[in-house]
Structure formats: structure tokens, C-alpha cells
Design goal:
By secondary structure, the chain is α+β, with helices and mostly antiparallel strands. The protein is built from four helices and nine strands; from the N terminus they run E-E-E-E-E-E-E-H-E-E-H-H-H.
């Protein structure tokens, strides 16, 4: 549960200017019932009850993880990825060990640059025959269906 700091002083004129939580309202506003909501891991101020998300949706931008135990219980820990490379969990920090997401794009672009222009033009051109990409059995089945339809058309024509 997110920890709240109890304020014994009566300070109605004091304004909240936000905290270190994701989507926190940073425009000056009156403090809510809980003036200070803290991350349970790093004890950073997330904001007040007016400017923070729900406890199960509260994200700490310092830890890059859920700021409340209810969020971890509801969603599980955030997994490090190529955008968020370091995440603080209850067991310690977890680091992204995978490669860069743009490596795949570099490989694909290099392959496209190495392909001759004539082949690229053929790949970009529309396919004139719709049966080219079909397997032999699919083509044979389609021919049989057409032959059956032709036979049915002949019978109807002969009877009529």
C-alpha cells in the first residue's frame, strides 16, 4: 500500500505542484486528503490524492515500476524492454539484456539495398495471375470445381 505522510499542521493555503508519478498533474492545485503519496520502494513523492492515478495504476518514474503494492499484485512487475532498460523490483534492479530494436530494421534495409533494382521492381509489381501463389493441389482442386460447374451449366442448357 502506498505510504502517506500525515501532516499535523493545518495549512489550507499550501498548494501541491505534483510529484514523480506518471501522468501526475503538475499545475498548482489544492492538496487532497492525502497530501503526500510515496513510492513504497524509493520513498519518492508521487503527488497528492488529487493529482495521482489510482493506487493500482500508479507508476513511479524513478523506479520505472508500480509505486504501490496493489499495482504489483494486480499487474505484476514491469518487465525491462528496449524503451525502459532499467526497472527496480522488490528483488533489486533488473536490466534489459536484449539487443536494440532497430537492429532488425538495419538488417532489412541492408538486404533491400543489396537486392538488384530489377528484382525489386518485380516484387513491387502486382501479380497478373491470381493462381501463381497457390500450390499444385489447390490449382487442381480449383480446376475440378470449374469443370463441375461447366458440366452443371451444360446440363441446365441441354434440359432447358
Amino acid at each position: 500500500m502506498a505510504q502517506t505522510r500525515r501532516d499535523t499542521r493545518d495549512t489550507p493555503a499550501e498548494k501541491c505542484s505534483g510529484g514523480k508519478s506518471f501522468n501526475c498533474r503538475h499545475a498548482p492545485h489544492d492538496k487532497g486528503k492525502s497530501p503526500d503519496i510515496l513510492c513504497y520502494r524509493c520513498q519518492s513523492r508521487m503527488g497528492c490524492s488529487h493529482c495521482c492515478e489510482l493506487p493500482s495504476e500508479l507508476l513511479c518514474l524513478i523506479c520505472n515500476n508500480w509505486a504501490d503494492r496493489r499495482g504489483v499484485k494486480h499487474h505484476g512487475n514491469i518487465v525491462p524492454n528496449y524503451k525502459v532498460r532499467l526497472v527496480r523490483t522488490d528483488e533489486g534492479y533488473r536490466r534489459w539484456t536484449g539487443g536494440n530494436a532497430f537492429d532488425l530494421h538495419k538488417i532489412m534495409n541492408a538486404a533491400i539495398r543489396a537486392t538488384p533494382k530489377e528484382e525489386l521492381d518485380l516484387l513491387r509489381a502486382p501479380d497478373p495471375d491470381p493462381t501463381v501463389n497457390k500450390t499444385t493441389t489447390e490449382r487442381e482442386a480449383e480446376e475440378k470445381r470449374r469443370e463441375v460447374l461447366r458440366e452443371q451449366a451444360r446440363r441446365i442448357k441441354d434440359d432447358g
